[in-house]
Specification:
Layout: E1 6-12, H1 19-35, E2 40-43, H2 70-82, E3 85-95, E4 98-106, E5 112-117, H3 129-132, E6 142-145, E7 148-152, H4 161-169, E8 174-179, E9 182-183, H5 190-210, E10 213-218, E11 220-223, E12 226-229, E13 233-235, E14 241-244, E15 250-256, H6 261-267
Length: 293
């Protein structure tokens, strides 16, 4: 079946400690996006919560819930009502003492298709995710939705080309990166801009190297010392920015055409020319000598 053009929407908002308010705000934007023709709606990392990983505090574990669970049940009803696909990143409680940074994928008929668990877990000043999250163990996944094949990765995953490659090789037309990336006060000004440009560059390179579309959804607003810069964007297979938001709350709309992927991959045949017989050592942590090759 030949892919057809599809309208996607990226929702970037600020979040507070009031989870119900965060949900209501995002659900309203989902309805508005669907009313404006969106068929796939993409939400930011941990969309229902503030970015609690900015600090270490055991009380935040109380916010987690099973996936599927109460929030996915509400999203399933909404997706079915609006005939939209929703990618919703969640704080998953898997078992006592076991938590994941996850994303649920819900099809346009309201069916829960499954989840992806964030594979790469960062630990940096203001981003204490290793305290909260266990690395994902479901592997990389592609979800066949009514409107296209979506590969979901989450935030820190976006810096690793191996994750993008493997997900693209599984047939993803669209790589989706829900994100919570921000600047610290000491990174303001030109340094913050450099980080933003590096963040976009690495993801645009995934689009080029894999001949597919990439959508990254970042939150906005200031939470304690973190200033989330937004600028959610969509890249085409040649790395061109098709749509980009600013640093405030907004819904970014974009039309993509997966039917062009075959032509892009024929023009730049990276998959054809891969030397898979030479890549074995990439699974090693480091190459200490030529003997490791």
């Amino acid at each position: 079946m030949t892919p057809t053009p599809v309208n996607i929407a990226l929702i970037q908002v600020s979040c507070s400690d009031d989870i119900m308010s965060n949900l209501d705000k995002t659900f309203l934007r989902i309805r508005d996006a669907a009313g404006n023709g969106a068929q796939i709606i993409l939400l930011q990392e941990l969309f229902a919560w503030p970015y609690f990983c900015r600090e270490i505090d055991e009380r935040y574990f109380e916010w987690a819930e099973p996936v599927p669970g109460p929030i996915t049940t509400r999203l399933e009803k909404l997706a079915s009502e609006l005939n939209v696909v929703i990618v919703a990143p969640l704080f998953e409680k898997r078992a006592p003492g076991l938590y994941h940074n996850s994303a649920a994928v819900i099809d346009a008929d309201g069916k829960y298709l499954g989840k992806y668990r964030k594979t790469h877990i960062p630990e940096d000043p203001g981003f204490h995710e290793k305290f909260y999250f266990t690395p994902g163990d479901l592997g990389y996944s592609v979800f066949a939705t009514r409107y296209g094949r979506i590969g979901v990765l989450i935030c820190w995953d976006q810096w690793f080309p191996e994750a993008a490659r493997l997900t693209a090789m599984m047939g993803a037309d669209l790589l989706v990166y829900p994100t919570a990336i921000a600047s610290l006060p000491e990174e303001a000004g030109n340094k913050s801009r450099q980080y933003l440009e590096a963040w976009q560059t690495i993801q645009r390179s995934h689009a080029v190297a894999n001949g597919c579309y990439v959508a990254s959804i970042n939150r906005v607003g200031t939470e304690n010392r973190l200033s989330f810069w937004g600028h959610s964007f969509v890249s085409g297979p040649f790395g061109e920015v098709l749509a980009e938001g600013g640093d405030g709350e907004e819904t970014i709309a974009c039309r993509i055409d997966p039917s062009t992927i075959d032509r892009h991959r024929t023009t730049w045949p990276f998959f054809r020319d891969r030397r898979t017989d030479t890549y074995g050592p990439v699974t090693l942590r480091w190459l200490d000598s030529n003997e490791d090759l």
